[in-house]
Amino acid sequence: MTTVTTRSPSPRATGRTKRPASDGGIGRYILIRFLLIIPTIFILVSMVFWLMRTTGDPITAALGGRLGPEQLAERIQAAGYDRPIFVQYVEYLGQIFTGNFGTTISTNRPVSEVLLTYGVATAELVFYALLVAFIVGIPLGMVAAYWRDKPTDASLRVFAILCYATPVFFSGLLFKLVFAVWLDVLPVSGRASTSSELQMQLLPYSTGFYTIDAIMTGNPEVLADVLEHAILPALALGLLTAGVFLRLVRTNVIGTLGTDYVDAARSRGVSEFRLVRKHAYRPALIPIITVIGLQIALLLGGAVLTETTFEWKGLGFMLSEFLKARDFVAVQGIVALLAVIVALTNFIVDIIAALIDPRVRY
Amino acid sequence: MTALESPPSVHKHTWWSRLPVVHQLRQSVGLQRGMLVAGLIITAVFVLTAIVAPVLAPYGFSQLRDADGAFGAQQPPGGSHLLGTTVGGYDVLSRVIWGAQTALFVIIVAVVLSIFAGVLLGLVSGYFGGWLDRILVVVSDAVYAFPSLLLAIVMSIVISGGKSNLIGGVLAAAISITVVFIPQYFRVIRAETVRIKAEAYVESARVLGAGSARIMFRHVFRNATRTLPLIFTLNASEAILTLAGLGFLGFGIEPTAAAEWGYDLNKAVSDVTSGIWWTSLFPGLAIVLAVLGMTLVGESLNDLADPRLRGRRAVGQAAGIVAQTSVVPGGTLVAGPGGLGGLEGPATHPTDGLEDRP
Questions:
Q1: Which of A120, B108, B200, B334 is most open to solvent, judged by the fewest CB atoms within 10 Å of its CB?
Q2: CB contact A173 to B (< 8 Å)
Q3: Which regions span the lipid bilayer (chain A) (predicted)?
Q4: Which of A39, A255, A326 sits opposite B349 (nearest CB)?
Q5: A291–B346: do the CB atoms touch at under 8 Å?
Q6: pLDDT single digits (tens) A228-281
Q7: Mutual angle of helices A220-257 and A151-165, in 10-degree steps
Q8: Residue A280's domain is classified under what CATH number?
Q9: Which H or E element spans position A170?
Q10: What was the ipTM of the complex prediction?
């Protein structure tokens, strides 16, 4: 029972009761899994709320040095921070439920607006990073598995470990140094150059997703500019995850390469390439997909650092700005939103895993 | 599903060969052994550097001037400053060396605290079960899924209010990291406890009248800790990355309190744009090397614990059908800064045709 409530199914838990497959279809599984998101989000949001409140009220934290005690008290009363904390907590939960994350103290904007504006930029970065991770990680993982324990495998494994051992901000700085400063072929930072941003602002409506906006301007130079800006951040963040994918694909393909049906396929004369690509890789997909869900958390954490390194104006960049300004209302909002995203991603991943492998739905 | 050890061999093992790492070192072959040895050497160098930092470093970590006057800012490598000076006028080499000490200190505090809390919670939760167990599992899963860096940021705001002073800064960083790690130990120990609880020897102990505490600590705990050395090495490397990440975002330790690699990299961001490479390259390399060493050790231990991944010679052709024994499916690299992804986690695949899920 307990394992059903966990986010990822735990193989070692007890209480294993084999039910016939007919018991509960995919619809029921999706419903139960969806309902289980609620406690996860609830716990995280509550935890962040209580932790942040132990430091005192947000107004004093943000403006404590700058305003006199009377003004401070006035602002605190206006914002309702002088009421009992439990009342504030219930109110906060209610607000989040309606999508209201409060108002930032430093810039006096609704947090939800900040989230929307900058969240898109982060989504774009994470998308490109995942692309890099797939393109680099998955084929190399298959190569490493096929030439297992050979020099190719050894060097790929060291590469994977290096990917993981290098903090994104360090690899980011190195990329900047080499490609942007010494070779001077790519821009140093930002999401686009000023002229491109101006052109995109002229659009009747913009998505905030710069690649799409750039295509809508119909100007190939703008698109090239946007893509150039994305290369280094995407590489820095993508390589971090690529190492994980490489490891994961390698381990799982090694597992499936040793099975009887692969031997059977080989004896039927299936080409080695096809053997790895189809017969060994396909069954290895499920654990890979499950772990990709966990990678979203890693990617979002990495995005904070990558965005700070490259001044990529997304949620992570804003988060570090708000941290500097000690604007804890905004910080709380961003953290709460990220909690929701992580929970939703895990939900989607579990559903995909269940669709592929019926045994996941117990 | 168990057995970290190879089947009982004919020759007797001496006591030291049963120590966690020594055992695996003997067990390993070829490439695996190379990786383990390389990792152990790098880690040893890191630890030694940390210990003898006061002797090794030419200057203090917050020293700005010596008898000849101020060091000057952003001096290129060479002369009396082998690796140059930072934008703040510190000696890069000295800060890199002293940084090892800070990192080691944070690792030790963070890992010891989280093992203590995580193991205790895992044992109690797994052993007694019931509603407490359910709540703890849900909470730990929620925390576990969350980006660890963000959690560490929130914790460091709570602990030090985002500011950092002397030892307080180091402790704040360590405790922030601890909170992130507790769910990992909790999950592993709880899963092991639940499994061991059903073993016959626990039954017999209970029949003999042993109390819950005795069973938990004597029978269950001793058998549930086989994976701890592995998680320890993984967490140690993750602790360095989290510490550096915190420092890079400005939540680290003040330069006058201790040397911290992440902080130095933060200060080096603007240097890079003007082509100054030595302020970022060396602290960064220090992080990479320290993490690399410990990850190599952790990864080797993980592979050796998993018969499917152990060197072919060591396991022979008979491996055939084995249950998943690796604590980290997919290998240790799943443990990124985002957490030990999939500890006990996303489980097995149908290689052996055995249903390994509940």
A1: B200
A2: yes
A3: 30-52, 125-147, 159-183, 230-249, 284-305, 328-356
A4: A255
A5: yes
A6: 888 889 999 999 888 888 888 888 888 787 778 888 888 888 887 887 777 777
A7: 120
A8: 1.10.3720.10
A9: helix A168-175
A10: 0.79
